[in-house]
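Box 3.1 — From sequence to structure: small monomeric GTPase
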Amino acid sequence: GDGCYNPPAAPASVIMLGDSGVGKTSLLIRFRDGRYVPSYFLSTVGIDFRNKVVVVDGTRVKLQIWDTAGQERFRSVTHAYYRDAHALLLLYDVTNKTTYDNIRAWLGEIREYAQEDVVIVLIGNKADCSGSERQVKREDGERLGREHNVPFMETSAKTGLNVELSFTAVARQLKSRGYEHGDDGKFNVHDFVRDNTKARSVCAQCRNM
Ligand code: GDP
Ligand code: MG
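Predicted structure (token representation):
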């Protein structure tokens, strides 16, 4: 509400999820640096998280984006990781049908351990690959997204296709859930806390008013 200006801003926690090799690290590096990292270099990058501010319709939404590595097998991403997440980028690889089939299992994990109102965006990565390389059609991704009521888009970390758009989609949904209240141009995002009784996210300051 009005008069709520309580820095410092707490960033929204965003987690990259999906099977090993789908391009989580590549997508995050493309988003952060605007470049595509050769695969021989990827294993040595060792990203934990990156902060990035995304502007949505003039509103600044601060994201803290966590990469997962070596945790891609089910039941190995810790429950605390899920619980604290405000948003999830869930990736499969359009050249690998298994990673697409596994999305249902990932969504099962998410429904079980993440907050009920967690923002999810479904991504079919490696959209630059075509012809016989491609195993999953765009329509299959669209259908899966519709089935689970989550936005879907294809991306390419290699060409940059829809990379900004996918993170903006996350920020847009966070904003629509009340993540950011300020409109005076200052960085005045509220501390973002969970109100589990209402199963939705509210600003601590506003809740107490
Ligand atoms: P992660 O295990 O999910 O983090 O996946 P990586 O980011 O390590 O990528 C796995 C492999 O896929 C690497 O060889 C990347 O170069 C490759 N890769 C990632 N994104 C793309 C993409 O958009 N297009 C293509 N053609 N290859 C990609
Ligand atoms: Mg990785």
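Summary of the box: The mean pLDDT is 79.
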